[in-house]
Every structure is written in structure tokens, then in C-alpha cells.
Design a protein that fits this description.
single chain; alpha+beta; Alpha-Beta Plaits; Glycinamide Ribonucleotide Synthetase, Chain A, domain 4; OB fold (Dihydrolipoamide Acetyltransferase, E2P); nine-stranded mixed β-sheet; five-stranded mixed β-barrel; 9 helices; elongated; binds adenosine-5'-triphosphate
Length: 402
Amino acid sequence: MWIGIDDTDSRKGMCTTFILAEVLEELEKFKIASFPRLIRLNPNIPFKTRGNGAVAIEVLNWDEECKEIILNAVEEYAEMDDENTHPGVVFAKNSENYRELYHRALHEVLSVDEVRELISSNKDEYYGFKKMRGIIGAASAIGANLSDYTYELLAYRFPEKWGTKRFVDEESVFKADEMTFPKTWDNVDKENREIVIAPNSPDPVLFGIRGDDPAYIFLAYQTIKSEEIYKEVLFITNQGTDAHIERGMPQREFGSYAFIGEVTCEPYEIPGGHVFMEVNGIKCAAFEPTKQFRNVVRKLKKGDLVEVYGGFKKNTLNLEKIRILKLKEFEEVNPLCEYCNKRMESMGRNKGFRCKKCGRRKMKRESVRIEREVSPGFYEVPPSARRHLAKPLARILQERSL
Ligand code: ATP
């Protein structure tokens, strides 16, 4: 039997992964099939608390007692009083029946009703609290197709520490990163000299280590010095896989896309430090929190060929990554007056150009080589601005070197 859980937390506390962590030991006697799953879904939906994550697990020797254990834990820990928390638990016999739902939950915005219908038509069970929106994520996490996957080790705090300042020794995190990157990633933001493994919210998570290989993850874990850890759980996840990205031009609000195109409007900046440009006529944004990444966007020019990745909201692609494919090397400018060493002025459409100083004329614009301050290649937002699902360059570049 598969068990999926979602929407138990709020900005004030809790984390759905913790509820699963709390029942793991009790479920052990019913035989757990594999690693618990931490599945991220559509990162653009408006009502997520943080990273739109849900959890799932498969129990081999199913017993009704498991149901009781899970439901009791959800009732005990879920932030039921929060107006945005709508927990859902799903029990399903066959994860294949939720495969398509998972794919849709990554790209679209689904309704509770359609998920209820699907669960009923599969003769599975769900338990929803309040508006029961959590059944969407719970059922989708069960259906996750982990053809590409990574891991995250989550270390939890003792309950009496929740809401207090975390102690994680920064130097030890830099050291752990040095020892294990790129097999682990997003431990630190080197350019901004900060650690990014620990959340700022008052939830039970002390820190999380993400990576491709559990051995390196545990090596990093052993290296990090911190306050005493209550427990740790290794999750298998779809994080860092670009599972949310569809290839092609943006079609749907709240979808995530990657497409190749030409820069059709030069980058410009608005107050607040947000940088915009257009690719194939689609507005693309590098918002202020993407920090140095904006410098790459600022240096692009009309006519450059790029591949852009991002979430599509309000007719704007919020950039997660850019791959510069080809930079424009020449630019058409007004012709030069060799006598005055000045660019001539246009006399109007198809009327040629004239030197303002000496009156000499030329008919055509000329092509000049331009110095570019950016090179072809991949660029990504810093770890602090990264979507959980976005595939980091650490992974992309490792694959390419194989
Ligand atoms: P955390 O990452 O800390 O667990 P969260 O960001 O996952 O928090 P939730 O509290 O789980 O936020 O809220 C997300 C809600 O959105 C859940 O109820 C989930 O079932 C629902 N949901 C997830 N994906 C979709 C989707 N594609 N369409 C509609 N609802 C969705």
C-alpha cells in the first residue's frame, strides 16, 4: 500500500516531512519498501506554503493499524488552526494509477474534485481535513515517476528548539561542501558567502543536504557541526531534476518551460533591481533576489541566441537558468565619417546618412565588431533563489563530462 501526505504545515510551523519522519519507526514493522519520497510539485501554484512538497511511502505488509498510525500523527501535528492548511492523506494500492496525475500536478493547477474522483475510481481511500486540498499533493507524490532522482537528508531539531535560532556552524558547512561538491550541492552560496542548507522558518527542519549519492551526503552530514539533532531521514526526491519543465513556448499560466529563441528586446531594469528582456517576444524576468544572475541578463543583446528556463506567471517567464548559445558579434551602426571621426546622422528612412560637421554623406549603415562581456554557456540563479525542482548546473555539468 502506498501512503501519501500533504498540506500539514503553515508558515508558522511544522513540515509534512517531519510527520512522516515521526511515524517511520512505527511503520518499520510493516516493512517499508524503499526510501520515503519527498516530491515537489508545481512550484508556481499560488497557495503553496514554501516549496510545494508532499511525501509518500510504500508499506509492503499492509495492516489497518498503519492507517491509524498515520492519521493519528497527522491529527496530532498538522497546523489545523491555520486558515491555509488543508491536510490530505491518500492510501493507494497501485502507484501507476497516479502517474499521469503526478505529471499534471507538476505543470498544471488541479482541483480537489478531480483528484477525489480519480481516487474513488481506483477504489483507493483518502482522508481530507478542512478543504482537503492536501489530497492533490498526496496522490501526486504516490504517482511520482522517479526516472531521474536525487536525495535529501533532512536533519530535524528537538521539539523544544522549534522557533528558536538555529545553530549550524557555518565554517563546517563550507568544509562539508568542499569535501563533497558536486556530489552534493546547494549547501552554500559561494559568491554571497552564506550557507543555504538551513531554513529560516520556525519549522522542525534544522538543515537539509541534497545530492546524488547518499555516501557523499552522509560524509557532508558527519562534517557539519550543529546543535544536537533529534533525528535524520534520507528521502529520495525529484528535486534538482527539472521535472517541472516542459519543452516549448509558454502555453499556460503557472506552467514551467524551456525554449530556445532570440533576444527580441534588450534587457532593461526597473526600480527595485528587477531586470527584464524578451526572448521570442516572451517577457523574461530576473528578479532582484536572483542577485548576480541579473548581470548575465543585463549583458545580453538583441539578436543573441539563448535557451531560457523558468516558471510562467502573469505572461512573464521567471528565469531559473539561461544557456547562452550564440552571442551576436557584429552590430549595425551609423556609418563613420573618416574625416571628422564621428558617426553620421540618419536623414530619415532610406535617405542615407550625413556628417553633421562636414556634410559628407553615405548611404548604408556599417557592421562593427562588438566586445561582449559574457560567454556562451549555462548560467543559473544562486542557490538562495533556486527552485527545489530546478536542475543545478552541478548536476548538468557532471552529466556532460561523463
Ligand atoms: P512545504 O514545502 O513546506 O511542505 P508546501 O509549499 O508544500 O509546504 P503545502 O502546505 O503543502 O505547501 O500547500 C500546497 C498545496 O497545494 C497542497 O494542498 C497541495 O495538495 C496542493 N497542490 C500541489 N500541487 C498542486 C497542483 N498542481 N494543483 C493544485 N494544487 C496543488
